[in-house]
């Protein structure tokens, strides 16, 4: 998730002045945008050395940590918003991280590549694993542990005691509200404890 228009749309979902935790914050671009345009503060968590350095160069507070270790370093309700953008598919214990996200933040905002997007379906129908802009890796060289669909997350959220506040797909910086499971390459959910 690096396109500026997508980041701006996601930033618009974060209330002004929020305290934000960005899980897998990458180079810190979204946190810098939130700080500069919405008066937000907070931290990013990132594992990659080069990306941590980019965060520091942007003036973004960053903690170098493996998300598989959880969020035990944070108290309950430490943040207004916890962002988890394109990280869920890389984690082994998805459900635990969702519960942790809901524990440390009042609201969670999550995105992940939507495997049910129509070009992906066509590639699977042709007998191939999809390689697209949102799923850019061959099956044998992917950092993704799993794939998911927009429709699947609703079930996962309910099973973990989360209430979906808002959901839609993302395509080229625009919200896709009609048939997001079919028409959007990225799924987006805003949720809270149920």
How is the secondary structure organized here?
Blueprint: H1 4-11, E1 19-23, H2 29-38, E2 41-46, H3 49-58, E3 62-64, E4 79-85, H4 94-104, E5 105-113, H5 118-125, H6 150-159, E6 162-171, E7 174-176, H7 180-183, E8 186-193
Overall number of structural domains = 1
Any idea what the shape is? Answer: globular
Radius of gyration: 16 Å
Structural class: alpha/beta
Strand content: 25-35%
Which CATH first-tier class would you pick? Alpha Beta
Ends distance: 27 Å
Q: Judging by the overall fold, what is the CATH architecture?
A: 3-Layer(aba) Sandwich
Low-confidence stretches: none
The CATH superfamily title: Vaccinia Virus protein VP39
The total strand number stands at 8
Mean of the pLDDT scores? Answer: 92
Describe, in plain words, how this protein is organized in 3D.
With 194 residues, this protein is α/β, with parallel strands linked by helices. It has an 8-stranded mixed β-sheet with strand order 3-2-1-4-5-8-6-7, sandwiched between helices. The protein has a single domain, classed as 3-Layer(aba) Sandwich (Rossmann fold). The longest helix has 11 residues, at 94-104. The model has no long low-confidence stretch (mean pLDDT 92). The chain is built from 7 helices and 8 strands. Helix content is 31%, strand content 26%. It holds the Pfam family MetW. This is Methionine biosynthesis protein MetW. It comes from Rivibacter subsaxonicus.
């Amino acid at each position: 998730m690096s396109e500026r228009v997508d980041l701006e749309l996601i930033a618009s979902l974060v209330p002004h002045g929020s305290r934000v935790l960005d899980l897998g914050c990458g180079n810190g671009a979204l946190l810098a945008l939130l700080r500069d345009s919405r008066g937000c503060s907070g931290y990013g968590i990132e594992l990659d050395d080069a990306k941590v350095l980019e965060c520091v160069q942007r003036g973004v507070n960053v903690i170098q940590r493996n998300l598989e270790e959880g969020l035990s370093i944070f108290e309950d309700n430490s943040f207004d918003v916890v962002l988890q953008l394109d990280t869920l598919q890389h984690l082994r214990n998805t459900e635990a991280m969702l519960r942790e996200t809901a524990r440390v933040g009042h609201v969670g905002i999550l995105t992940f590549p939507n495997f049910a997007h129509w070009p992906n379906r066509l590639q699977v129908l042709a007998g191939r694993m999809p390689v697209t802009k949102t799923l850019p890796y061959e099956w044998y060289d992917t950092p993704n542990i799993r794939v998911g669909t927009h429709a699947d997350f609703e079930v996962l959220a309910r099973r973990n005691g989360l209430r979906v506040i808002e959901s839609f797909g993302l395509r080229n910086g625009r919200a896709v509200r009609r048939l997001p499971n079919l028409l959007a390459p990225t799924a987006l959910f805003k949720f809270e404890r149920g």
